[in-house]
């Protein structure tokens, strides 16, 4: 679903105006540290930024996020012998659980409730508040299947799969969700995912 070349190609498309909430960067650092079982600063390779004044949301470069994701996935691949795409998905899955347990994430979970369709619909709509790039469009396919289309999405399908599964499992821990890449061409900036449960 993803590779170092695909991720680096998307990274090259990032511009200074492409930003993501700092919360995502912090959560990715925690995910890398947790996955590698090491000290957070050592595993993530960078100091933790200070908390923004008065809790105002701050943003970081999408390119910086992708560089950290690539370093983390490469380290997991080399150290633990996992496939790169799987490493990206697992880092995203763990990082997303940190995001969803933060106050803003908990609020989103409370709004969406246990209905996976509502969660995917609301999540797709709120994604624009977390980044300055990309378009996400939710579609109900059946009672137990949904489609999410991504356009100009720099994080790619493996990352999005991890995020989607993590979010859905937050409110439905007893359910089994399967996410598959339905359409997309390398470097997977535009693609669609099918989610089944």
Automatic annotation (TrEMBL):
Pfam families, A to Z: DUF2378
Top-rank lineage group of the source organism: Bacteria
InterPro entries linked: Mxa_paralog_2265 (IPR011751)
Protein name per Swiss-Prot or TrEMBL: DUF2378 family protein
Organism annotation: Myxococcus llanfairpwllgwyngyllgogerychwyrndrobwllllantysiliogogogochensis
């Amino acid at each position: 679903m993803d590779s170092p070349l695909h991720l680096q190609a998307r990274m090259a498309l990032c511009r200074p105006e492409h930003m993501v909430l700092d919360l995502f960067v912090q959560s990715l650092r925690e995910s890398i540290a947790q996955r590698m079982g090491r000290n957070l600063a050592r595993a993530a390779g960078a100091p933790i930024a200070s908390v923004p004044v008065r809790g105002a949301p701050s943003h970081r470069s999408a390119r910086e996020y992708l560089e950290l994701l690539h370093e983390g996935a490469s380290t997991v691949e080399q150290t633990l012998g996992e496939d790169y795409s799987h490493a990206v998905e697992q880092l995203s899955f763990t990082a997303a659980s940190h995001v969803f347990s933060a106050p803003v994430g908990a609020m989103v979970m409370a709004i969406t409730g246990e209905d996976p369709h509502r969660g995917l619909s609301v999540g797709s709509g709120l994604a624009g508040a977390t980044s300055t790039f990309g378009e996400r469009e939710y579609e109900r396919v059946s009672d137990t299947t949904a489609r999410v289309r991504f356009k100009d999405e720099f994080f790619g399908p493996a990352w999005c799969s991890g995020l989607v599964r993590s979010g859905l499992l937050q409110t439905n821990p007893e359910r089994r969700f399967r996410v598959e890449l339905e359409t997309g061409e390398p470097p997977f900036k535009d693609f669609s995912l099918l989610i089944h449960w």
